[in-house]
Write a structure and sequence with these properties.
The chain contains three helices and five strands. By secondary structure, the protein is an alpha+beta fold. Strands 3-4-2-1-5 form a five-stranded antiparallel β-sheet, covered by helices on one side. The longest helix has 21 residues.
Length: 134
């Protein structure tokens, strides 16, 4: 079984967003959040254990969920602006209307909710990848 890669997650998300007519501006934001959360799960969380993109019922909100194997919450290390890295979590929080973190012994789930998915109002369901590509 092949581990979920950033490009796979972006493709899954882009297909789900296109199927629901999500505005281009929101698509760009969602793809950036997907990239940051998946790459952080791979780099710092022991890999992606679950990935999901769905739409909140009765709302114009896109929900991106990424689970990984680390029980440690994400953090912003206070890196100076001239030093590369350390800005992904801050970027996710800027783009998302809200973020939620569920910590457990076997890892964590990070949920980013992005508003403004015109065309997705009232749509439920999602596209999931259980940490595998293919």
């Amino acid at each position: 079984m092949t581990a979920l890669r950033c490009e796979d997650a972006r493709r899954i998300a882009k297909d789900a967003l296109a199927a629901h007519g999500v505005a281009d501006r929101v698509v760009d934001d969602v793809l950036m959040v997907v990239t940051e959360l998946v790459s952080n799960a791979i780099r710092h969380g022991g890999g992606v254990t679950r990935f999901d993109v769905r739409f909140a019922e009765g709302d114009e909100t896109v929900i991106v969920e990424v689970a990984d194997a680390s029980p440690q919450p994400p953090h912003t290390p206070g890196t100076p602006a001239h030093v590369p890295g350390g800005f992904g979590w801050m970027l996710v929080n800027r783009l998302a209307e809200r973020t939620e973190i569920e910590l457990g012994r076997a890892g964590k789930v990070i949920r980013a909710c992005l508003a403004g998915a015109a065309g997705a109002s009232g749509v439920t369901g999602g596209v999931s990848g259980a940490g595998s590509a293919g």
